[in-house]
User: Fold this.
Amino acid sequence: MLRVSREVQSHGWVFNIEPLVVLEPDTEQFIHVPNNALKVIVSNPLIQARGTRLYDLRRMTFKFDGSVVCEITKLLPFEWLPESARNFIVVRAGRMFQSRYVGSATLNGFLEEDEMMARLALEADELAVARHNIFNNAEMQQMLDRSSDTTVYSTSGGYLSRDLLLRGLD
Assistant:
């Protein structure tokens, strides 16, 4: 079930995404990725997560002089997940077990339907909490802000100017 939980949470949901995490270098100038990070999206496209650390593609080094802003999708303990996510994980894990070890075509049909309903419930909860709308995307934000030539980067649930995201990264 842990594998299924990792798979489901890797998708990135409003409950396990931290949109503005500032990571600081340690005493050796390395920036370490948190142990429970499933995905790290750095605001600067020339910085990538490689293994357990961040890597600067421009300078070709793991060493950093300053902090880095990123979005982190975290693996949360099962107990911390919302009910709809826990239900989907349990139903999906059960269906996968049944199809691999029991192999009943009849049961598989019922469980596929249960899995689909659990996924729909999770997605409905996501939509209710995230409050997505037409203005909640980078392209629309740029169109609305024609007076500025500042690039806008999308984060989960909000928008920040490029200057704000890159502040302190030079």
